[in-house]
Protein backbone atom coordinates (compact mmCIF):
# COMPACT_ATOMS: atom_id res chain seq x y z
CA UNK A 1 0.00 0.00 0.00
CA UNK A 2 1.19 3.52 -0.81
CA UNK A 3 0.22 6.50 1.32
CA UNK A 4 0.35 9.79 -0.51
CA UNK A 5 0.77 12.28 2.26
CA UNK A 6 0.65 15.99 1.68
CA UNK A 7 3.46 17.43 3.78
CA UNK A 8 3.58 20.97 2.58
CA UNK A 9 0.89 23.50 3.34
CA UNK A 10 -0.45 24.68 1.02
CA UNK A 11 -0.49 21.68 -1.31
CA UNK A 12 1.67 22.53 -4.34
CA UNK A 13 -0.14 21.60 -7.55
CA UNK A 14 0.99 21.68 -11.18
CA UNK A 15 -1.98 21.62 -13.57
CA UNK A 16 -1.64 20.19 -17.10
CA UNK A 17 -4.21 21.22 -19.73
CA UNK A 18 -4.70 21.34 -23.49
CA UNK A 19 -8.09 22.96 -24.04
CA UNK A 20 -10.41 25.75 -23.02
CA UNK A 21 -9.36 25.42 -19.39
CA UNK A 22 -12.76 25.69 -17.73
CA UNK A 23 -11.64 23.08 -15.18
CA UNK A 24 -8.57 25.18 -14.47
CA UNK A 25 -10.79 28.25 -14.12
CA UNK A 26 -12.95 26.46 -11.58
CA UNK A 27 -9.83 25.61 -9.58
CA UNK A 28 -8.63 29.22 -9.79
CA UNK A 29 -12.01 30.54 -8.66
CA UNK A 30 -12.87 28.00 -5.98
CA UNK A 31 -9.76 26.54 -4.35
CA UNK A 32 -9.11 27.78 -0.84
CA UNK A 33 -5.71 28.62 0.59
CA UNK A 34 -4.86 24.98 1.34
CA UNK A 35 -4.08 24.38 -2.35
CA UNK A 36 -1.72 26.46 -4.47
CA UNK A 37 -1.44 26.11 -8.24
CA UNK A 38 2.28 26.68 -8.68
CA UNK A 39 2.32 26.29 -12.48
CA UNK A 40 0.15 25.42 -15.47
CA UNK A 41 1.64 23.44 -18.34
CA UNK A 42 0.29 22.62 -21.80
CA UNK A 43 1.27 20.59 -24.85
CA UNK A 44 -0.11 23.22 -27.26
CA UNK A 45 -1.05 26.89 -27.19
CA UNK A 46 -4.54 26.93 -25.68
CA UNK A 47 -7.07 29.00 -23.75
CA UNK A 48 -6.07 27.23 -20.54
CA UNK A 49 -2.62 28.83 -20.80
CA UNK A 50 -3.99 32.32 -21.38
CA UNK A 51 -6.37 31.89 -18.43
CA UNK A 52 -3.36 30.96 -16.30
CA UNK A 53 -1.36 33.95 -17.57
CA UNK A 54 -4.33 36.25 -16.90
CA UNK A 55 -4.38 34.94 -13.33
CA UNK A 56 -0.66 35.76 -13.00
CA UNK A 57 0.43 32.12 -12.78
CA UNK A 58 3.66 30.64 -14.05
CA UNK A 59 3.09 28.70 -17.27
CA UNK A 60 5.09 26.38 -19.50
CA UNK A 61 4.48 25.06 -22.98
CA UNK A 62 6.02 21.75 -24.01
CA UNK A 63 4.74 21.31 -27.54
CA UNK A 64 4.35 17.80 -28.82
CA UNK A 65 5.34 17.06 -32.43
CA UNK A 66 2.90 14.34 -33.61
CA UNK A 67 4.17 11.22 -35.40
CA UNK A 68 5.23 12.00 -38.97
CA UNK A 69 6.08 15.65 -38.22
CA UNK A 70 9.59 17.08 -37.76
CA UNK A 71 10.94 16.71 -34.25
CA UNK A 72 8.65 13.83 -33.31
CA UNK A 73 10.23 12.01 -30.37
CA UNK A 74 7.83 10.81 -27.72
CA UNK A 75 10.47 9.79 -25.20
CA UNK A 76 12.30 13.10 -25.48
CA UNK A 77 9.03 15.00 -25.07
CA UNK A 78 8.20 13.00 -21.97
CA UNK A 79 11.63 13.73 -20.56
CA UNK A 80 11.27 17.47 -21.16
CA UNK A 81 7.79 17.45 -19.65
CA UNK A 82 8.99 15.57 -16.55
CA UNK A 83 11.79 18.11 -16.10
CA UNK A 84 9.41 21.04 -16.47
CA UNK A 85 6.99 19.62 -13.93
CA UNK A 86 9.74 18.71 -11.47
CA UNK A 87 11.11 22.25 -11.62
CA UNK A 88 8.01 23.40 -9.73
CA UNK A 89 8.41 20.80 -6.93
CA UNK A 90 4.74 19.75 -6.95
CA UNK A 91 3.12 17.62 -4.26
CA UNK A 92 0.53 16.70 -6.87
CA UNK A 93 0.08 16.96 -10.65
CA UNK A 94 -3.47 17.45 -11.95
CA UNK A 95 -4.25 16.53 -15.53
CA UNK A 96 -7.35 18.62 -16.29
CA UNK A 97 -8.22 18.27 -19.94
CA UNK A 98 -4.64 17.36 -20.92
CA UNK A 99 -5.12 15.46 -24.15
CA UNK A 100 -1.85 13.47 -24.25
CA UNK A 101 -1.03 10.16 -22.66
CA UNK A 102 1.69 10.68 -20.08
CA UNK A 103 4.63 8.35 -20.76
CA UNK A 104 6.46 6.07 -18.37
CA UNK A 105 9.10 8.58 -17.41
CA UNK A 106 6.54 11.14 -16.22
CA UNK A 107 4.37 8.55 -14.46
CA UNK A 108 7.40 6.95 -12.75
CA UNK A 109 8.91 10.20 -11.64
CA UNK A 110 5.67 11.33 -9.92
CA UNK A 111 4.41 7.86 -9.12
CA UNK A 112 1.00 7.97 -7.50
CA UNK A 113 1.07 11.77 -7.44
CA UNK A 114 -0.64 12.46 -10.78
CA UNK A 115 -4.44 12.56 -10.91
CA UNK A 116 -6.68 12.98 -13.94
CA UNK A 117 -10.25 14.07 -14.39
CA UNK A 118 -12.17 12.09 -17.02
CA UNK A 119 -15.67 12.81 -18.40
CA UNK A 120 -17.20 9.33 -17.91
CA UNK A 121 -17.72 6.76 -15.18
CA UNK A 122 -14.60 4.63 -15.63
CA UNK A 123 -13.92 1.87 -16.46
CA UNK A 124 -16.67 2.60 -18.99
CA UNK A 125 -15.67 4.81 -21.90
CA UNK A 126 -11.95 5.55 -21.47
CA UNK A 127 -10.11 7.60 -24.08
CA UNK A 128 -10.49 10.90 -25.85
CA UNK A 129 -14.10 10.43 -27.03
CA UNK A 130 -15.70 9.40 -23.77
CA UNK A 131 -18.76 11.63 -24.03
CA UNK A 132 -19.61 10.64 -27.61
CA UNK A 133 -18.94 6.97 -26.81
CA UNK A 134 -21.32 7.03 -23.83
CA UNK A 135 -24.00 8.84 -25.84
CA UNK A 136 -23.68 6.48 -28.81
CA UNK A 137 -23.80 3.44 -26.56
CA UNK A 138 -27.09 4.67 -25.14
CA UNK A 139 -26.29 4.65 -21.43
CA UNK A 140 -28.80 6.38 -19.13
CA UNK A 141 -26.17 7.48 -16.63
CA UNK A 142 -22.59 8.67 -17.17
CA UNK A 143 -20.52 11.12 -15.16
CA UNK A 144 -17.09 12.17 -14.07
CA UNK A 145 -14.16 10.25 -12.56
CA UNK A 146 -11.03 11.46 -10.80
CA UNK A 147 -8.36 8.76 -10.85
CA UNK A 148 -4.69 8.24 -10.17
CA UNK A 149 -2.71 8.14 -13.41
CA UNK A 150 -0.80 5.04 -14.46
CA UNK A 151 0.71 4.33 -17.88
CA UNK A 152 -2.57 3.07 -19.37
CA UNK A 153 -5.35 5.09 -20.98
CA UNK A 154 -7.60 6.16 -18.06
CA UNK A 155 -6.89 2.88 -16.24
CA UNK A 156 -5.49 4.05 -12.90
CA UNK A 157 -7.14 3.52 -9.47
CA UNK A 158 -10.30 5.57 -8.96
CA UNK A 159 -10.40 8.26 -6.26
CA UNK A 160 -13.88 9.74 -6.77
CA UNK A 161 -16.85 9.58 -9.12
CA UNK A 162 -20.08 11.53 -9.63
CA UNK A 163 -22.99 10.56 -11.86
CA UNK A 164 -24.80 12.60 -14.50
CA UNK A 165 -28.11 11.52 -16.08
CA UNK A 166 -28.21 11.32 -19.88
CA UNK A 167 -31.26 12.96 -21.51
CA UNK A 168 -32.90 11.46 -24.58
CA UNK A 169 -32.27 14.62 -26.59
CA UNK A 170 -28.67 15.19 -25.47
CA UNK A 171 -25.98 16.02 -28.01
CA UNK A 172 -22.28 15.51 -27.27
CA UNK A 173 -22.07 19.22 -26.46
CA UNK A 174 -25.05 19.42 -24.10
CA UNK A 175 -24.04 16.24 -22.28
CA UNK A 176 -20.38 17.27 -22.04
CA UNK A 177 -21.36 20.64 -20.63
CA UNK A 178 -23.45 19.02 -17.86
CA UNK A 179 -20.61 16.59 -17.12
CA UNK A 180 -18.13 19.47 -17.00
CA UNK A 181 -20.32 21.32 -14.52
CA UNK A 182 -19.97 18.30 -12.24
CA UNK A 183 -16.25 17.85 -13.05
CA UNK A 184 -15.48 21.46 -12.13
CA UNK A 185 -16.88 20.96 -8.63
CA UNK A 186 -15.52 17.42 -8.19
CA UNK A 187 -11.90 18.34 -8.89
CA UNK A 188 -12.09 21.22 -6.40
CA UNK A 189 -13.65 18.98 -3.73
CA UNK A 190 -11.05 16.25 -4.32
CA UNK A 191 -8.17 18.71 -4.07
CA UNK A 192 -9.51 20.17 -0.82
CA UNK A 193 -9.91 16.67 0.60
CA UNK A 194 -6.41 15.64 -0.49
CA UNK A 195 -4.89 18.77 1.01
CA UNK A 196 -6.53 17.88 4.35
CA UNK A 197 -5.81 14.17 4.63
CA UNK A 198 -3.85 12.82 1.65
CA UNK A 199 -4.84 9.59 -0.05
CA UNK A 200 -3.87 5.94 -0.24
CA UNK A 201 -3.44 3.45 -3.06
CA UNK A 202 -3.61 -0.30 -2.60
CA UNK A 203 -3.53 -2.18 -5.89
CA UNK A 204 -6.61 -1.18 -7.88
CA UNK A 205 -8.13 0.66 -4.94
CA UNK A 206 -7.52 4.27 -4.02
CA UNK A 207 -9.23 6.39 -1.39
CA UNK A 208 -9.00 9.76 0.24
CA UNK A 209 -7.89 9.24 3.84
CA UNK A 210 -10.28 9.96 6.68
CA UNK A 211 -9.75 12.98 8.92
C1 LIG B 1 -12.98 17.80 -19.53
O1 LIG B 1 -14.23 17.21 -19.75
C2 LIG B 1 -11.93 16.77 -19.31
O2 LIG B 1 -12.32 15.69 -18.51
C3 LIG B 1 -11.70 16.32 -20.72
O3 LIG B 1 -11.63 17.54 -21.44
C4 LIG B 1 -12.47 18.49 -20.79
C5 LIG B 1 -11.62 19.69 -20.48
O4 LIG B 1 -12.39 20.85 -20.43
N1 LIG B 1 -10.56 15.47 -20.86
P1 LIG B 1 -11.72 22.29 -20.25
O5 LIG B 1 -10.64 22.45 -21.29
O6 LIG B 1 -11.16 22.37 -18.86
O7 LIG B 1 -12.84 23.27 -20.44
TrEMBL record:
Annotated catalysed reactions: N(1)-(5-phospho-beta-D-ribosyl)glycinamide + (6R)-10-formyltetrahydrofolate = N(2)-formyl-N(1)-(5-phospho-beta-D-ribosyl)glycinamide + (6S)-5,6,7,8-tetrahydrofolate + H(+)
Entry GO terms, CC: cytosol
Ranges of residues in domain Formyl transferase N-terminal: 12-191
Biological process per Gene Ontology, one example term: 'de novo' IMP biosynthetic process
EC number: 2.1.2.2
Domain of life the protein comes from: Bacteria
GO MF annotation terms: phosphoribosylglycinamide formyltransferase activity
Keyword Transferase annotated: yes
Recorded metabolic or biological pathway in which this protein acts: Purine metabolism; IMP biosynthesis via de novo pathway; N(2)-formyl-N(1)-(5-phospho-D-ribosyl)glycinamide from N(1)-(5-phospho-D-ribosyl)glycinamide (10-formyl THF route): step 1/1
Coiled coil stretches, renumbered: none
Keywords of this entry: Purine biosynthesis, Transferase
EC top class named in words: transferase
Active site as annotated: 118 (proton donor)
Annotated site location: Raises pKa of active site His: 154
Binding annotation for (6R)-10-formyltetrahydrofolate: 74, 99-102, 116
PANTHER family cross-referenced by the UniProt entry: PHOSPHORIBOSYLGLYCINAMIDE FORMYLTRANSFERASE
Role summary: Catalyzes the transfer of a formyl group from 10-formyltetrahydrofolate to 5-phospho-ribosyl-glycinamide (GAR), producing 5-phospho-ribosyl-N-formylglycinamide (FGAR) and tetrahydrofolate.
Family: Belongs to the GART family.
Name the UniProt record assigns to this protein: Phosphoribosylglycinamide formyltransferase
Protein's organism: Corynebacterium bovis
Underlying gene: purN
Amino acid sequence: MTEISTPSAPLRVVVLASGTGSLLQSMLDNLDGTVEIVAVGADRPCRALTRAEDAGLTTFLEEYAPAGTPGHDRAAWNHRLAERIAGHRPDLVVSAGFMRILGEEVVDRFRGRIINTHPALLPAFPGAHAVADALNYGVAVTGSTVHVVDTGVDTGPILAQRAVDVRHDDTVDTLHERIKTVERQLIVDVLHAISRTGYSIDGRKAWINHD
